[in-house]
Amino acid sequence: MQIEFKATKRDLQGTGASRRLRRAGQLPGIIYGAEQDATPVTLDHNELYHLMRKEAFHASVLTIDLDGSKESVILRDAQWHPYKQQVLHVDFQRVSSTEKLHIKVPLHFVNGDTSPAVKLAGQMISHVINEIDVSCLPKDLPEFIEVDLSSLEADHSVHVTDIKLPSGVEIVHHGEGDPVVATALKTGGSSEGAAEGEEGGE
């Protein structure tokens, strides 16, 4: 899905100027990277607010139409008002088609309800990690990575190394070991006959 939005270059900077922009329904931001000077920009707050509620906006190569010139960027940071539904500032990083990105991508868990852990043992599946750091070229960036839980057995876990990655995508691993992504857990009752125990409690 291609996401594109407009921005204009911003001349006036500073707290006062940013406050005036926000009062006028505008959103201050900055575009940096690709060995170019950082460019302060102004965006439409409502447009960005609605875009930022889409999961894909946070893990996609975006197109900014900056005064008629299009740039490819990714969202790097967003500051939100502590209690209002208001974005205060956004940071975008320019991307090059030939340089790998390092970005967090959401995980989508599928087939948990058909796994042996749930179907045969009556267990529940806990999602331990909901996003993962990846490295890839912009053209290979997935909006999300699917984690298939269909073969998850009772009392077992799915680890990072079990995830089937799209072509061209590598996981950027921090620390040691093989982190757990999802795990099957016993529900409140005893482990013996957990599946049979589901009928009780009427």
TrEMBL record:
GO CC field: cytosolic large ribosomal subunit
Gene3D superfamilies noted in UniProt: Ribosomal protein L25, beta domain, Ribosomal Protein L25, Chain P
Matches recorded under Pfam families: Ribosomal_L25p, Ribosomal_TL5_C
Keyword set includes Transmembrane helix: no
Domain Large ribosomal subunit protein bL25 L25: residue ranges: 6-92
Transmembrane domains' residue ranges: none
Keyword set includes tRNA processing: no
One example GO MF annotation: 5S rRNA binding
Residue stretches making up the Large ribosomal subunit protein bL25 beta domain: 100-184
Signal sequence, renumbered to the chain: none
GO BP of this protein: translation
InterPro entries named in the record: Rbsml_bL25/Gln-tRNA_synth_N, Ribosomal_bL25/Gln-tRNA_synth, Ribosomal_bL25_b-dom, Ribosomal_bL25_C, Ribosomal_bL25_long, Ribosomal_bL25_short, Ribosomal_L25_dom, Ribosomal_uL5_bac-type
Key words of the record: Ribonucleoprotein, Ribosomal protein, RNA-binding, rRNA-binding
Superkingdom assignment: Bacteria
Job of this protein: This is one of the proteins that binds to the 5S RNA in the ribosome where it forms part of the central protuberance.
NCBIfam families noted in UniProt: bL25_bact_ctc, PRK05618.1-2, PRK05618.1-5, PRK05943.1
Recorded family membership: Belongs to the bacterial ribosomal protein bL25 family. CTC subfamily.
Self-association state and partner proteins as the record states: Part of the 50S ribosomal subunit; part of the 5S rRNA/L5/L18/L25 subcomplex. Contacts the 5S rRNA. Binds to the 5S rRNA independently of L5 and L18.
Protein name: Large ribosomal subunit protein bL25
Species name: Azoarcus taiwanensis
Phylogenetic placement of the source organism: Bacteria, Pseudomonadati, Pseudomonadota, Betaproteobacteria, Rhodocyclales
